[in-house]
Amino acid sequence: MAGDPTFIDGRIWVAGTWPSGFRVCPVRAGPIGNVRSVPTSPTLAADQPPAATPVARRGRRADLTVALVAVVLAGWVTSGLWRDPNSRVILVNASDQALFEWLLAFGGHALTHGQNPLFTQLVNVPDGVNLAVNTSITVYAAVFAPLTYLIGPPATFLVILTLNLAATALAWYWLLSRHLVRSRLAAGVGALFVAYSPGMVSHANAHLNWTAGWLVPLLVWAVFALRRPGRWLRGGIVLGVLVAVAFSIAAEGLFFTALALGVFLTAWALHPARRAEARAALPDLLRGLGVTALVAGVLLAYPLWLHFAGPQRFHGTGFDPVIHSEDVAAFGAYPDRSLAGAVGLDTTLAPNPTEENSFFGLPLLLLAVVCFGALWRAAAPRRRATLVALGVTAAVFAVLSWGPQATWAGRRTGQTLPFALLDGLPVVNAALPARLALVVTPVVGVLLAYTIDRLRAAPPGRRARAAWAAGFAAALLPLLPTPLLTSARPPVPEFIAAGTWRQYVSPGGVLTPVPLTLDVTPDGQRWQAHALAHRQGEFRIPAGFFLGPGGPDGRGRIGPPPRTFDTLLDQAGRTGLVPIVTEGSVRLVRDDLRYWGVEVVVLPDEVHGAKYDLDEEALRRTVTALLGEPQRVDDVWLWKVPAT
User: Which residue intervals define the domain DUF6311 in the entry (predicted)?
Assistant: First the structure.
């Protein structure tokens, strides 16, 4: 009978009769079981190629428009850095920017010099750093190594950050437009919202891992593709490779994606309208996941061993899960880097400007509820299963993001929440609960896309259309992103840039900047990144910005435990006062330098404090009191440390 569906090669084909003859119309089964028709011309493909049809041309124009908007918005958000990547820095997170620049330089250096990209002795001498338990972005470092050598780590960092934002929009647009909705407008709105949502723009403050949101739709697609009969082997291999790539760029994001898919699939499969379908798909899904585990396990065997059993590992982090939880009121608040924030409607409900993980604003929350209700009323039982799964996923991750204790408008209520039951579990204890709110963003984006798709398929009356348009405008326009805040940063000293340091440091020897390299004083890793990327050779540094052991209760901490030398320098730099120097403190400082194997101590004319200004004169006088008079070399003060 005309119109009966036939399954061929994983698609549903519907035969029908048109005045001009026989038509074959592909109707694709979406990854969550929603069937949608692909518009076709009522003529044979041989008479008129699909690429020449008006529908195809409109589709290409829509694709190009979304791509253009995605690139323009990415450039707009990062525009402050494009003025001069080498002399500008992200104002609110210069520390992480310095770290990622160093990771790019070190990763390229390790690749070209046959070194271990996941463990290094270049920082934190003599113990080294386990990069497998840090955010190593190994894939980015390897892929962009030629660019890092060509234009330097700061510019490469900016290129990746900009591409991350644009690629996230394009990946979500591909998933939505090719698998979930018919309308390209619906797919574009949903994708652009996800890519430039408050959480993504917030993490664009130097987080190359979290802005790699393009990984999520690829992982979602690959998981649902395992349902296809006979595709479990190939699908499992593809998913395994994707898992390995995601682990090497954003391990925490991969963990959250896996949790979200687990919650969604469980809720979806338990719905009465989907149980039979889920039961039929389960064998192929399990086979595919088995292949995924095997492929990812082989590719990640060494990184996983380093992560859980290697040297300098740790369990959990030193971050307080109560502090790094999402304020319940933050879901209805506006973010700083948005149109609403620009007119003064932003708040201070996030633990820091890089963690505005929800901040949807009350109008968008109301719109999401209205969209859900409208879709529910119009949905068949099978579509309602999808809506239930989306709602459950959003609710679970919103509640978990509130952390172990509820906080409302900056005040802790003392109310214990479900995350308190999970905080002690392995892997979970290394995640920041506030970031779980990022899972809610794609759910909202999908709801927006579904709603627009429904409205375009069955247009309401004029007044209803105006009401919907006003609702979308009121919800989304205030969230339009504004550029990241940037500031000037001092250049790499000529002593380093010109390679003069090689006259004072033996190959692979130890140089320490003043103050020591930490998250708040990242100069040492910036200098080291410059030397590595410009093929000057290697010098090592004490301390550094990294996560390592030594925190409370066996957890991790930022940098190594402090010693006498860096404690005295920190005091001088912060207060501008030279601490009292005794024979005992001189002896302890020399013990520190001997422990690290330091050959020279270097103080530039301008120290870059990532969180606060430092007093260079007080630092110079303090080191002079400890080590004697310095010598002037190029644009730095230098103290030679005699070998003992």
Answer: 116-413
- One-letter amino acid identity for 515? P
Largest Cα–Cα separation, the chain: 101
Q: Is the pLDDT at 33 greater than 70, yes or no? A: no
- What angle do the packed helices 362-378 and 462-476 form, to 10 degrees? 140
The model's pLDDT over 339-353, given as tens digits with 9 standing for 90+, comes to 999 999 988 899 899
Q: If pLDDT is split at 50, 70 and 90, which confidence band does 513 have?
A: very high
Between CA 430 and CA 436, with CA 435 as vertex, the angle to 5 degrees is 95
Q: How many residues does the chain have?
A: 644
Tell me how many degrees the CA angle 487-92-326 measures, rounded to the nearest 5: 160
Which pair of structure tokens corresponds to residue 435?
Answer: 């970031």
Question: Is residue 178 in some structural domain?
Answer: yes
SS3 130: strand
Encoding tokens for residue 256?
Answer: 């959250």
Contact of 69 with 519, CB cutoff 8 Å: no
Cα four-point dihedral sign 296, 191, 158, 489:
negative
Q: What is the CA radius of gyration of the chain?
A: 28
98-146: pLDDT as tens digits: 999 999 999 999 999 999 999 999 999 999 999 999 988 999 999 999 9
Please give the structure tokens belonging to residue 306: 């380093």
Angle between helices 153-175 and 523-533 (to 10 degrees): 90
Q: DSSP character for 35? A: E
Question: Containing domain of residue 208, as a range?
Answer: 59-88+152-479
For residue 148, what is the DSSP state? H
How far is 205 from 193, CA to CA, in rounded Å?
A: 18
| pLDDT confidence of residue 52 | 55
The confidence band for 230, taking pLDDT boundaries of 50, 70 and 90, is confident
Q: Is the pLDDT of residue 42 over 60?
A: no
pTM for the whole thing?
Answer: 0.90
The pair of structure tokens assigned to 525 is 């890793």
Residue 122 lies in a domain: no
Whether the per-residue pLDDT at 19 is higher than 50: the answer is: no
Torsion angle of alpha carbons 57, 60, 66, 69, nearest 10°? -80
User: Sorting pLDDT into bands at 50, 70 and 90, what band is 84?
Assistant: very high
- 580: three-class secondary structure by DSSP: coil
Question: 3-class SS at 220?
Answer: helix
**Backbone phi and psi for residue 481, each to the nearest 5 degrees, phi listed first:** -75, 150
List pLDDT tens digits, range 421-434: 888 788 887 789 99
β-pair type (510-513, 598-604): parallel
Give the HSE-up count for residue 308: Cα atoms under 13 Å, Cβ half-sphere.
7
Q: What angle do CA 472, 475, 478 make, to 5 degrees?
A: 125
Considering the domain boundaries, does residue 360 fall inside one? yes
583 inside domain: no
Number of domains in the chain: 1
> What is the C-alpha to C-alpha distance for residues 642 and 598, in angstroms, rounded to an integer?
9
How many beta carbons lie within 10 A of that of residue 613, not counting itself? 11
The pLDDT value recorded for residue 283 is 94
Q: Contacts from 251-255 at CB under 8 Å and sequence distance 24+? A: 251/135, 251/209, 252/135, 252/209, 252/210, 252/430, 252/431, 252/435, 253/209, 253/210, 253/212, 253/213, 253/215, 253/216, 254/215, 254/219, 255/427, 255/431
Chain centre distance of CA 369: 27
Q: Is the pLDDT of residue 574 over 80?
A: yes
Residue 453 pLDDT more than 80?
Answer: yes
| Residues 548, 248: Cα–Cα separation, whole Å | 18
DSSP string, 234-260: HHHHHHHHHHHHHHHHHHHHHHHHHHH
